[in-house]
Design a protein that fits this description.
Belongs to the phosphatase 2A regulatory subunit B56 family. GO terms for molecular function: protein phosphatase activator activity. The protein is mainly alpha-helical and 438 residues long. Helices cover 60% and strands 1% of the residues. It has 19 helices and two strands. α3 runs antiparallel to α4 and α6 runs parallel beside α8.
């Protein structure tokens, strides 16, 4: 895919935005059904007057023809009626294709007059009321998404807009009159689209806008903040959480140090509570990435983050517990020893509970920590604190657990502890046995 690196390098005082490729993290599922948000049934057929191709007219006439083609592409077709306006739909599709090529190759095509027309054409096509979800029963983890019927046109409009934003001739100083806060708000609403292909394009569009328009950055962050708070505390439904988190991952990566208070607030008050949502599995990888990005920027945030995870630790859902353990391992991979000491007690009390879990996957995931060299080195340095917390759970499992695979893992952990601190290990064994005999 094309190199999608973002804005030119900015002075150090400005947060950088790192680029991400336009390859989505998620795989598009098979299509379930189609729906169109353009609920406009056109009574009579639509007629567009065919225009000559841009390459067939003299270069002096191209700018005017370009504007005419942009205006023609503002006409919206009804894709739910598969038989209507077939010829004109195809004409618009080929015109959009031509516009994509033209803006990519032509020099000098972005005159000041083109900016409002480009934004108008894009707005006419993409901004619409999304169709209501098929039913309240829609489960994004199980059901296939409803795909946008007008995608043959919509995809090309997004492609055109991205090429426009990425054009070497693009001037944010002119564009900011048209790509403003109202535009961004409407763009963010579209992230609730059920169609993963559309959300993938939106992700790139918003990332480019964040990179190019410094004046919109704080506004974009604030609105994402609001979407997440509504999602956590009110609706528990928003399709584009993973995509917004992916954009945030690259934004956090570019934050200037020291971190502003508003960024720390966002971590503690928004990102940590996102762990409580039922549909966590749909966006957990992107959420964990954001958390780790924050901790790599500012290790002093480690304690509040781990205490936050402990507070929201799942009580009844083993699948979520496995996710939490995975995220915790990612955090421990980057933790500084001075921070580890502050949270080792509550952390290993939780890990001891997980090791004792009746759910095989939870116990296994927790025991895998002992295969991680860096975590092992932290445990070894602090074995006098950690061993007493873990010992009784491990010893009991080694004698009583029903699953031989878990028993084998526990034996390895006990063996590691014995090698680290044999004196304490012997004392704990003796105490454990005498307590059992009472």
């Amino acid at each position: 895919s094309r190199d999608m690196s973002s804005a030119p390098t900015t002075p150090p005082s400005v947060d950088k935005v790192d680029g991400f490729s336009r390859k989505s993290v998620r795989k598009a599922r098979q299509k379930r059904s189609q729906s169109s948000s353009q609920f406009r049934s056109q009574g009579k057929p639509i007629e567009l007057t065919p225009l000559p191709l841009l390459k067939d007219v003299p270069s002096s006439e191209q700018p005017e023809l370009f504007l005419k083609k942009l205006q023609q592409c503002c006409v919206i077709f009804d894709f739910m009626d598969t038989l209507s306006d077939l010829k004109m739909k195809e004409y618009k599709r080929s015109t959009l294709n031509e516009l994509v090529d033209y803006i990519t190759i032509s020099r000098g095509c972005l005159t000041e007059q083109t900016y409002p027309e480009v934004v108008r054409m894009v707005s006419c096509n993409i901004f619409r009321t999304l169709p209501p979800s098929d039913s309240n029963e829609f489960d994004p983890e199980e059901d296939e998404p409803t795909l946008e019927a007008s995608w043959p046109h919509l995809q090309l409009v997004y492609e055109f807009f991205i090429r426009f934003l990425e054009s070497q001739e693009f001037q944010p100083s002119i564009a900011k009159k048209y790509i403003d806060q109202k535009f961004v708000l409407q763009l963010l609403e579209l992230f609730d689209s059920e169609d993963p292909r559309e959300r993938d394009y939106l992700k790139t569009v918003l990332h480019r806008i964040y990179g190019k328009f410094l004046g919109l950055r704080a506004f974009i962050r604030k609105q994402i903040n609001n979407i997440f708070l509504r999602f956590v505390y009110e609706t528990e439904h928003f399709n584009g959480v993973a995509e917004l988190l992916e954009i945030l991952g690259s934004i956090i990566n570019g934050f200037a140090l020291p971190l502003k208070a508003e960024h720390k607030q966002f971590l503690v008050k928004v990102l940590i509570p996102l762990h409580t949502v039922r549909s966590l599995s749909l966006f957990h990888a992107q959420l964990a990435y954001c958390i780790v990005q924050f901790l790599e920027k500012d290790p002093s945030l480690t304690e509040p983050v781990i205490r936050g995870l402990m507070k929201f630790w799942p009580k009844t859902c083993s699948q979520k517990e496995v996710m939490f353990l995975g995220e915790l391992e990612e955090i421990l991979d980057v933790i500084e020893p001075s921070q580890f000491v502050k949270i080792q007690e509550p952390l290993f009390k939780q890990i001891a509970k997980c090791v004792s879990s009746p759910h095989f996957q939870v116990a296994e995931r927790a025991l895998y920590y002992w295969n991680n060299e860096y975590i092992m080195s932290l445990i070894e340095e602090n074995s006098n604190v950690i061993l007493p917390i873990m010992f009784s759970s491990l010893y009991r499992i080694s004698k009583e657990h029903w699953n031989p695979a878990i028993v084998a893992l526990v034996y390895n952990v006990l063996k590691a502890f014995m090698e680290m601190n044999s004196t304490m290990f012997d004392e704990l064994t003796a105490t454990y046995k005498s307590d059992r005999q009472r």
